[in-house]
């Protein structure tokens, strides 16, 4: 069988399997980034809090999830989650091992890792906002919610966007580690295709090419988003 046939979309080709794996990778990364935004926002708020206990909690979170290897985090979540679900199932009369959905565990694990990095991005973005603008808004009696909506959140989004782009790329690569749970993402699809055909070099190169393609598209999307946000701020500044 030729290389074109193996990478094609025919009955014996693996092109469709690889593309479905790439789609699963993108969906998993989007879910993880969304969960990470929630975790990151909460942790960033904790690290910026005037309460020392909250700052300690925030520091512990970022230290643990940035310091422990990503693969170990995934193993802990997958096997620890399965053990917890199995124990709960046994309390209700279930027999045997009860597994947890690989996608859900992968999204939560990568999301919490992503959240540790997003927390630092958001914290830095908040600190980058001009204190003078916030003090001026308070001086004229602007309500807190209005100040957050009109001044704080737009500027935090602007300053955080480049960092979020970097976190996206990190999460995209971390999603490959979810293959250890059996989820059919891109790396797992490449492994299955390589093992079935014994063409390991071919399919791992094909998988790497798809990762590079996703990275390139992501860079263009984030680049255009940054340019659009920058133009919007310039227009608003010129009006004011």
- Biggest sheet record: none
* CATH arch. level architecture: Orthogonal Bundle
Task: Catalogue the unreliable spans.
Answer: none
The overall number of domains is: 1
Looking at CATH, the homologous superfamily is: MetI-like
Shape estimate: flat
Q: How many alpha or pi helices?
A: 9
Summarize the structure in words.
With 240 residues, this protein is mainly alpha-helical. It has one domain (3-239): MetI-like fold. 81% of the residues lie in helices and 0% in strands. The chain contains nine helices and no strands. The protein has helices spanning 3-6, 15-48, 52-67, 70-91, 102-128, 131-139, 144-174, 186-197, 200-239. Helix 2 (15-48) packs across helix 9 (200-239). Keywords: Cell inner membrane, Cell membrane, Membrane, Transmembrane, Transmembrane helix, Transport. Residues 22-222 form the ABC transmembrane type-1 domain. The chain crosses the membrane at residues 20-45, 72-92, 200-222. One of its GO terms (cellular component) is ATP-binding cassette (ABC) transporter complex. Belongs to the binding-protein-dependent transport system permease family. HisMQ subfamily.
Draw up the topology in text.
Elements: H1 3-6, H2 15-48, H3 52-67, H4 70-91, H5 102-128, H6 131-139, H7 144-174, H8 186-197, H9 200-239
Helix pairs in contact: 2-3, 2-5, 2-7, 2-8, 2-9, 3-5, 4-5, 5-7, 6-7, 7-9, 8-9
Subcellular location: Cell inner membrane; Cell membrane
Family: Belongs to the binding-protein-dependent transport system permease family. HisMQ subfamily.
Organism: Paraburkholderia bannensis
């Amino acid at each position: 069988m030729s290389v074109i046939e193996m990478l094609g979309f025919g009955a014996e080709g693996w092109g469709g399997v690889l593309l479905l794996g790439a789609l699963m990778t993108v969906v998993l990364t989007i879910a993880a980034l969304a969960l990470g935004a929630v975790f990151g926002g909460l942790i960033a708020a904790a690290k910026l809090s005037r309460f020392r206990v909250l700052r300690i909690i925030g520091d512990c979170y970022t230290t643990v999830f940035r310091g422990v290897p990503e693969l170990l985090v995934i193993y802990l979540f997958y096997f620890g989650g399965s053990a917890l679900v199995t124990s709960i199932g046994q309390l209700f009369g279930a027999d045997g091992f009860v597994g947890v959905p690989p996608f859900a565990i992968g999204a939560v694990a990568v999301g919490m890792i992503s959240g540790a990095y997003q927390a630092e991005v958001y914290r830095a973005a908040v600190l980058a906002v001009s204190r003078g603008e916030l003090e001026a808004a308070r001086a004229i009696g602007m309500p807190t919610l209005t100040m957050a909506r009109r001044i704080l959140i737009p500027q935090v989004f602007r300053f955080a966007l480049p960092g979020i782009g970097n976190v996206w790329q990190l999460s995209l690569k971390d999603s490959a580690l979810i293959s250890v749970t059996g989820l059919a993402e891109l790396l797992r699809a490449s492994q299955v295709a390589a093992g079935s055909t014994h063409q390991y070099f071919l399919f791992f190169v094909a998988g790497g090419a798809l990762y590079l393609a996703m990275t390139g598209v992501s860079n263009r999307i984030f680049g255009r988003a940054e340019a659009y946000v920058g133009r919007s701020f310039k227009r608003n500044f010129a009006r004011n």
